[in-house]
Write a structure and sequence with these properties.
alpha+beta; single chain; 319 residues; globular; 11% strand; two-stranded antiparallel sheet
Length: 319
Amino acid sequence: MQPRNLQHGQQGQVARSRQSRKIPKLNTRDTSLSRKAMLVSLKIGVWSASKFDKNVSDEVAQEKNASEDAGRYRKHLLPQFAKDGSSLAKVKQAATAAREFHYDNTLPWSQDGSRILTKANYFQYVEKMRKFRIDFDTAVSVFMDEYPKAAEEARHFLGDMYRGGDYPNPAAMASNFKFDNIFLPFPDAQDFRVDITEDEVNEIKKTLKAKSAEAVTGAMRDAWNRLYEAVSHAAEKLSNPDDIFRDSLIGNLTELCNVLPRLNITEDQYLDQMCTEVRSKLTAHTPKELRKDPALRNNVATDAAGIVNMMQSYMGDQK
């Protein structure tokens, strides 16, 4: 979307910055990730409390003279727990909060779900994840206490759709919830040892090195793009005095500038510099101050557009 009503050259700056997606020109002086980072995965399991009901789906299809494949009816097994505020809803909320924090504080690595956790961000990550685990386990405990009675009450809510076999016994139900945070060392080509031929070992080391270099590029691209998107969005929203913006517009920038330096695995001085610029020019004022002072809002919008423009000098066109 093209920014509206940009002033003092902002429109041209942001328009040029959005002509294509961007990739940073990375500082790759050290791609030995095994000394700077580890791999971490987060696997959370939550009982869905819903199930496909073939009988009801067939009945609806017949009533409407439709094909059996026209639709699928999925019933809530615990309708009384489908609303916000229930113990099951709190389990799901804890899971969602943990997943969001996990993705915000790590960088992409591979398709198997593992992500890069820098050593600089390790202690903050572990401390916060421990709290999420406590919240999750507490909510699960409350739900498990309520589950037997709730399963019986479901007869009333579901009527003819109730099937006793849809409800696991409490011991089996507990296995539907899990919260696993797994840490693994980063693959190190120099430490690769296995009983195969030397040529094969060298080929595998070569592949591991290439994978690590690729991971660095992808991870830092992700870090730059997070900041790029957030600053561009701020420039657009603040440039139009009639646009309403939420407190999170500034809060998200503050959080990004707190975490990105800890995720900067290549020690890219330009990324750190951009975070410093954002802190000093964009997040130094509260949302309330920006709403009350149109002139201040315009100045911050100008600064945001200027930072977007500066980022262009450190970012190349996507290939």
